[in-house]
Amino acid sequence: MEVFLKDQSLSRIKTDLLVLPVKEHETRGTDIRLLDRILRGKLSQRIQKSKFAASEGSFLLHGTSGMLGATHLLLVGMGKEGEIGTDAWRKMAARGKREAEVIGAEEFGVYLPPDQQPEAIAGPIVEGALLASYRFDKYRSNSKPSANIRSMSLFRPGLKTTAGVKRSIERATALVPGVFLARDLVNEPPSVSTARYLGEQAKRHCRGAGLSVDVWGVKKIQEMRLAGLLAVNRGSAEEPRFIIIHYKPKGKASKKVALIGKGITFDSGGLSLKQPKSMETMKLDMAGGAAIIGAMSLLPELAPEVEVTGYIPTTDNLPGGSAQKPGDIIRYLNGKTVEVLNTDAEGRLILADGLALAAKTRPDCMINLATLTGACVIALGNEVAGLFSNQQPLADSLIRCGREAGEKLWQLPLVKEYREEIKSSIADIKNIGGSSGGAIMAALILQEFVGDVPWAHLDIAGPAFSEKDGLMCPRGGTGFGVRTLVQFFQTFEEASDHGRNYAGARRKF
Ligand code: BES
Ligand code: MN
Ligand code: ZN
User: Fold this and answer.
1) Residue 501's pLDDT is what?
2) Is 6 helix (H, G, I), strand (E, B) or coil?
3) Quick check: CB of 199 below 6 Å from ligand 1?
């Protein structure tokens, strides 16, 4: 889809579909009144009849019967003034694209309201429209060729193509392939998207200046004593892999970031077997790893000045004849021992390897992404990821990055008092706590492996996978995390004094 910027007025623009963002209750603004005059009152009648009030997400499609340069008009509600964030612009554009498809248009135009800075909204608008075009239909025999929107125009009178507008659009465009890659990796069936496959895909997509991929097989994994990964893999017929993706910027790196992603390609629960219903979507369990592959695949093009290393332990979790058993004990490379009482709490077991390994390299910060607990889904639902951190400025920074990127993060506490619950009578800790506070218990277990490195844990069990078709993403993997990570790379690069100046960090976007 091509993007054009046009210096044009509302009444002049020639397009199949003219998308007009409208603030809540402002259905009688200057722009609408102007259009209404040209349409001889038809538009205001229609607004009244349909009770369109421009609440966020609402929309009204109106044919112009040849009275306007545009054949159709789409009013899109943006919600209340002051509450309109970047995501509202993404959703508005996604709605525009959807309705353009509905009417069989080949292009559409979006009006940029004069009270908005084009530098701030052009990127999100393009991003929303692009994200909306994702499909995963390679396994359908009768897939309809998807509607082909060739171009989108952003216009308003006096619009200038400044460097800022260009950068904003380029950045949004660059981001999308990483999100789509993460979605693809999750959507691929679990017997295709195996540990070996993930390693191959990482190698295939993480290429280019400064980027390299190392995929460790069983031997190397044994040599490196990645005991958690080996333990979880014991019930499987597939070999495990440990993927390491490394990005080194051209100049001197300002900071060193480590990313650790859960790569369980299918989670049956192991001997602590899940119910069939809970297993239906368990191919999603490598979404954390997929987000890291997706985000890191973009690094040569984005070229931030941070050094980034991604660690992805990957295997499926199955109850084969030599599967680990409840009661087994794992001894980790940092000396810690973990009594496995529930083999379905496997994510923390493999992440522990990644965290311990990454911590040894003393990065400036570590971020892990994992579809870790059902408890987090119960707490925060499917739109919001849980965030835990041992360093508040890092947490604050990630929340802000998420907000700007269109991904919601909500902080949950690392409650010291609950550590009592993960003590084992026979080893250092157990892999489960009591029956409540499951998301926190899991985070506390991870924390045992991070030492004093600034660390954040994103529990993306809810938002990694969407059970229903959405505007910007069809049912399936969402690619959650990719956009926050990219935003973070660019913020972190600019944070001059890590740990203290995060809050004041200037962002490019
Ligand atoms: N992969 C699951 C968590 C999950 C649940 C992700 C639902 C996405 C949607 C994880 O490995 C798991 O099974 N967690 C258990 C932990 C429990 C045994 C302590 C859970 O949440 O039930
Ligand atoms: Mn599990
Ligand atoms: Zn799992």
Assistant:
1) 39
2) strand
3) no
CATH number for the domain whose boundaries are 2-157 = 3.40.220.10
DSSP state of 504: G
- Helix, strand, or coil (residue 459): strand
- Identify residue 490 by its one-letter amino acid code: Q
Per CATH, 2-157 and 184-504 having the same topology is answered no
* Active-site amino acid positions: 274, 348
Q: Is 382 in the pocket of ligand 1 (CB under 6 A)?
A: no
CB 355 within 8 A of CB 261: no
Query: Do 195 and 240 touch, CB atoms closer than 8 A?
Result: yes
Tell me phi and psi for residue 103, to 5 degrees: -85, 5
Domain ranges of the chain: 2-157, 184-504
Predicted pLDDT at 497: 42
What dihedral do alpha carbons 319, 324, 325, 329 form, nearest 10°?
-160
User: Is 346 touching ligand 1 by the criterion CB < 6 Å?
Assistant: yes
Q: Which of 344, 377, 440 to mutate to test the pocket of ligand 1 (most atoms within 8 A of CB)?
A: 344
Mutate which of 278, 373, 460, 467 to test ligand 1's pocket (most atoms within 8 Å of Cβ)?
373
For the chain, list residues with pLDDT below 50. Answer: 496-509
Separation between Cα atoms, residue 40 and residue 402, nearest integer Å: 44
Contact 441, 432 (CB under 8 A): yes
Cα of 270 from ligand 3 centre, angstroms: 10
Residue 495 has what pLDDT? 58
Nearest ligand to residue 438 Cα: 1
Please state the length of the chain. 509
CA distances (Å), origin 28, targets 35, 306, 351: 11, 48, 55
- The predicted structure's pLDDT at residue 499: 42
**Tokens standing for 217?**
């097989």
Ligand 1 lined by 319 (C-beta under 6 Å): no
Instruction: Return the pLDDT at 493.
Output: 67
Taking the C-alpha atoms of residue 309 and residue 359, their distance in angstroms, rounded to an integer, is: 11
- Structural contact between residues 71 and 16, judged by C-beta atoms closer than 8 angstroms: yes
CATH superfamily of 184-504: Zn peptidases (3.40.630.10)
